[in-house]
Protein 1
Amino acid sequence: MRIGVLTSGGDCPGLNAVIRSVVHRAVVDHGDEVIGFHDGWKGLLECDYRKLDLDSVGGILAQGGTILGSSRVQPAHLVDGVERARGHVAELGLDAIIPIGGEGTLKAANLLSEAGLPIVGVPKTIDNDIASTDVTFGFDTAVGVATEALDRLKTTAESHQRVLIVEVMGRHTGWIALHSGMAAGAHAIVVPERPFDIDELTARVGARFAAGKKFAIVVVAEGAKPRAGTMAFNEGGKDIYGHERFAGVAQQLAGELEKRLGKEARAVILGHVQRGGTPTAYDRVLATRFGWHAVEAAHRGEFGMLTALRGTDIVMVPLAEATQTLKTVPADRYTEAETVL
Ligand code: F6P
């Protein structure tokens, strides 16, 4: 069998672990040939690739980023993208393509699959918002990075008796905010699923100071917004790929809370540090299992599917189903967290 693998969209700790696993399972166990397309779909569309053998994936398990590179170019962005992809798949004699990516990548994968290309998807995102899988690799690493940052920020907040508003990633969902906030014992968690009320937030943080505490930590997901009409708010705009370009919710909250509470407030934006660096053991294992199962699905001819974690099992889920909704933070998870804030 000849398999093409690519990584597309925002990078994520664990991508290299998937690539390594695909190569090991395919080359060693099945005697397949594997090629890696450079910079995501762009590599497939421009026929830019290299052969992947055991040597080329040696030592990459613990490496962050992706040895193949990534880009936000999706086939749908190019008018003749699907036909070009089809042409290159035929020219290269590919029996399967394994794209590893998030929401946008999986939608593109579904488009190509519906056009008849042999696709087996692997989900990734630090945001953990892909509905078909219980967990995505990268999430555990991102939560670990954010939790460590929050632990560190507590000591400086306390020294200066400040309110620190810490912005974590999460365009549409607050999984990183919820988990890191719970793990670090934050004093308020603000998520996109639940537009915040600035009066309530001020009261919550104010009550802490009134009780004699000297500092407060608020974790906010980058995509969080105020309840309509409760606060002047700049939502930002869109980048050239149609992704939200946020105007900085932490900065805006810091200004508002400082004014309302009469306490010094600072915004800290963790940004891409959450995506960089070595994956945790959990993410390496999940990524490795996804890669292994993607190769198996290709050998069974199970195309148009996506690897997913359900409980402790890896199962295959239709790509079409996987790209329909996002996995948001359920209200009861937020309620649980509120008790311990
Ligand atoms: O989808 C993952 C994610 O980390 C989002 O939380 C974030 O909004 C986005 O990627 C930022 O991506 P970039 O700045 O690389 O386009």
Protein 2
Amino acid sequence: MRIDVITLFPALFPGPLAESIPGRALGRGIAELHSHDLRRWGLGRHRSVDDYTYGGGAGMVLRPEPVAAALDAVRGDDGFVILMDPGGERFTQARAQDLAGRPHLVLVCPRYEGVDDRIRGMVDLELSIGDYVLSGGELPALVVIDAVLRLLPGAIDAASTGEESFVEGLLEYPQYTRPPVFRGQAVPEVLVSGDHAAVARWRREQALERTRRRRPDLLDLPAGTSGVGPTPGGRVPGAMPASTEPVRRAGRRGRGRRVDDAERWDAGNGPPDRSAG
Ligand code: SAH
């Protein structure tokens, strides 16, 4: 896989991607990462890339010409172009799987107030990493690239990416290592029983239970939903119709079960697991 990043701060790459799992994936040549300084395509003597916003208002906007020229130069025949944008499709594990199957990704990282709207027609997908506003698209791009790199064949043991949170539409089951007893809390007996079938059953139950308690929204998705695009409850977080093509290995979802006594992680209740263990 080839990944190109268009940014005003190329020195931010590979940054954290140089270490650990993504670092190994890049080091082994499983993927190559190139960052390009948008100023290379800037206008005039000052290589200007931004300007005031028409209609008035605070902040600067990236002009379309440098971004378009950068895309013309790096997208090639097979580049899948992604604009980092808080109004884009919410990034999910299913989308990470989809991106991991593509040969060439091009990520555009705006700064300031974002990019001239006419650029949106030139991209294949807009991605948001969550409902908050960061200062630029670089951190979101690093998040997306990290999630993708670890899914590439050879990056890590396939068994570990196959069992992680979200892959089957569930959070991961609880895990333990030594010591067998820590501050009075013992490791669940089944895990040291040596009974592999019982361990598998326990993990499945725990994954379901934890998902039910923390993220009932994951179970509420109708079976077969990819997790890409509009979320249940009528909220449409900037999903782009043009880019919601079928996603590979979307993962099975729960049975649409309703959860009434759910304690939600995101409801301000504090860690939902505080009563466990
Ligand atoms: N005025 C814009 C925000 C600009 S923030 C708005 O209200 O939508 C500057 C840039 O940071 C954005 O163009 C985008 O590239 C990036 N960015 C900020 N928050 C992001 C998020 N949650 N997900 C993806 N990109 C984000």
